[in-house]
Amino acid sequence: MPAVYHRNFKILYTTGTPQATTSRVEYITTRPITCPQCRSRTLKLYDHYSRKAAFINHEGVRRTLLIKAKRYKCQRCSHLFREPMEGLLPKKRSSEQYRQMIAHEYCKNVNNKTIAREFGLSQSTVERIIHERFHLKIKEALNYPAPLMIGIDEHTIHKGRTFATTIADLGNHRIYDIMEGKSLTQIERNLSRNNSATC
Question: What span, in angstroms and rounded, lies between the C-alpha atoms of 3 and 11?
Fold first, then answer.
């Protein structure tokens, strides 16, 4: 019986060392799949494709997975789409649990260089993931209208070359948003978009 990395991945074979293990796996789901365009469940398997991503399972085992996944064609509207993968967002190269673990290490005051070495990533990737996770947390916690008074502070997120801007809600004494870049045009565009979304 094939080994199972966790409930959604059946291991086909494994290569590498204990420190850098890569497994070829097949993605398996018991959830019904529907067409994202018309919501029909009348689907036909169109083909398979490969996807590479880093995962960590519930036992804390980190592994690079070469995923054998499926692409479907809707019999009703002819839409082609890739099956959604639990815990792995489209176009991401690591799972949500893996990215959350990186943010957790950062919150324990582990520096980016150490995290990058431990997880086998570049420092810029670690910084990007940390920035993304905190941005999501802020968005989740701060679901309220645009502030009347704001404070703006810019800071670097990668050795002085990549900038981010923090927007503070001065009336409520809390952070409203964090966005990449520091140009006035970009800040105005982001604030306008956020304000429109709350109207």
Answer: 5
Q: What SS3 class is residue 180?
A: strand
**What is the mean pLDDT for each group of 10 consecutive residues in the chain (199 residues)?**
68 78 86 92 95 85 89 96 90 89 85 87 88 72 69 68 74 73 74 54
Instruction: Note whether 9 and 29 are within 8 A (CB).
Output: no
* Domains of the chain in sequence order: 1-89 (no CATH), 94-141 (1.10.10), 144-198 (no CATH)
pTM: 0.62
Q: Tell me how far apart the terminal alpha carbons of the chain are, to the nearest angstrom.
A: 55
Q: List helix spans (H) across 108-199.
A: 112-119, 123-141, 184-198
